[in-house]
From TrEMBL:
Keyword Flavoprotein recorded: no
Membrane topology field: Peripheral membrane protein
Domain of life assignment: Eukaryota
Keywords annotated in UniProt: Hydrogen ion transport, Ion transport, Membrane, Transport, Vacuole
Protein name: V-type proton ATPase subunit F
Organism taxonomic ancestry: Eukaryota, Fungi, Dikarya, Ascomycota, Pezizomycotina
Amino acid sequence: MSAAAAAAHKDREFLAVIGDEDSVTGLLLAGVGHVTPAPDSQKNFLVVDAKTETADIEAAFQRFTTERKDIGILLINQHVAERIRHRVDTYTAAFPAVLEIPSKEHPYDPEKDSVLRRVRRLFGE
């Protein structure tokens, strides 16, 4: 690994989560929760429900993938990713890695997963 590649992810020590209440709660109970120090106190998670605006989901995705340099992996429920599919599909940076995960109410569909679709294109499938 080159020095530049090592430096690109050296400080990325946290997971971020965008998902439904059950998914986020489970991951917080597993210990992934983090809040930055005051005065801005940013959380590394967003709970999405039926009332959550798509703009709020996009803002959280932007914050976790671009603005915060301490996030190494972003987990997002696949049904939430569908609401901002254009953003997820056009995201190409290596860090943070964006992984789509299932939820209790919505099963995982590999046909919708942006990472798997990219891998299939790479292998010519």
